[in-house]
Design brief:
The structure is a single chain. The protein has one domain: Vaccinia Virus protein VP39 (Rossmann fold). The protein is about 45% helix and about 15% strand. The chain is built from 13 helices and 8 strands. Strands 1-4-3-2-5-6-8-7 form an 8-stranded mixed sheet, sandwiched between helices. Helix 5 packs parallel to helix 7 and helix 12 runs antiparallel to helix 13. Bound molecules: S-adenosyl-L-homocysteine (SAH). S-adenosyl-L-homocysteine binds next to helix 3 and strand 3.
Length: about 400
Amino acid sequence: MDSISLRAKAILARQVNHECDCKSDNENYSDDEERSSKYRFVSALSMSGGNGDNSYSTNSLLQKRVLSKIKTVLVENTKEMMTNLDFPKCIKIADLGCSSGPNTFLAISQIVNTINVFCKECNQNQPEIDCCLNDLPSNDFNTTFQFLTSFNKKLTQEGSCFVSGIPGSFYSRLFPRKSLHFVHSNYSIHFLSKVPDGLEKNKMSVYITSSSPLSEYKAYLNQFQRDFTTFLRMRSEEMVSNGRMVLTLIGRNTTDDPLYRDCCHFWTLLSKSLCDLVFEGLVSASKVNTFKMPFYDPTKEEVTDLIRKEGSFQINDLETHGFDLGHSIEDCSLQPHRVKSGQKEASCIRAVTETMLVAHFGDAINIDTLFNKYAFHVSQHATCTVKTTVTLVVSLIRS
Ligand code: SAH
């Protein structure tokens, strides 16, 4: 694989230029939102960095399983994109919300391999491929780029591939106009740009639960509508016509009650664990009341409706997959397995939330204690089979 040229560069300066590109309502929108937000911990949103026991890199098996499930969707969309664009000489692909860890390069290597193998099969010259890895500036890009060597090994064909880091929010412009051919994002766009206002009535709960007022659902839905529409609008400016986008996110099954979440929903279990700390006098109730997740799990219909309304993309396919945070029913019939799977799920949720929890609670909270409680609550729900959470996989074509 010697002839493959890989260049890793975190182009921080680029972002400045991009921001000039897109003054606009988008930029004003994000600034205003940030200023007005009372949930300051949201600016700490990033997965736990490094390679340690509690890092995202070590605890992202769920996201890895999801990536292996969507492989066919990626392969098909990549091939169709190449054919419809008549085999461009230079291809620019972006992974949005790439995080830090082995998953970062999984999808990218599948896309690059598909392009190179497909070009060979079709007797076409292999293109030069620009792979752009995006995440928020607080992401541990140093750890991300440590996986470059293993990425190199995953490439099955010779070809030219250039890797760069693009720090910035995907709710703003990140790339020049009409420059992207393929966009991928796994398990990232369920994160909102902010916690919506108006959640005060729902105390001691970090997210929507069955006992939330309807206004809470409306506030979260409204924020998702604004964010997802902005996301689509930004990408529509950046992508070439007939470019492809594959988005995978956490969603929920359609039920009559938009507030319904199953009893073992991961945010419900986090709320329960925080409540335990309040009851034990380890943390104050008022502090817990002001910790809310910047997250929304849309239904298939909510996603479809927003894509249609925004109008720049055609829906190629929208699939719904089961969601499993790491404990299957078979694993959980025995007590030791229950405990172990509880710990796995706790570690996964910890890797995603620890930076925000620490930003909000500071020294007032003992993270180990909190996630021991979480693991216990998971083990109590190990035999629950009714789940509201699903994984949504949507593939889009830029009109
Ligand atoms: N795609 C990776 C990581 C998923 S974790 C995987 O499959 O394992 C979600 C990632 O989205 C985190 O790294 C988080 O920092 C990033 N993220 C959340 N909101 C973002 C935003 N507005 N802009 C860019 N990245 C964002």
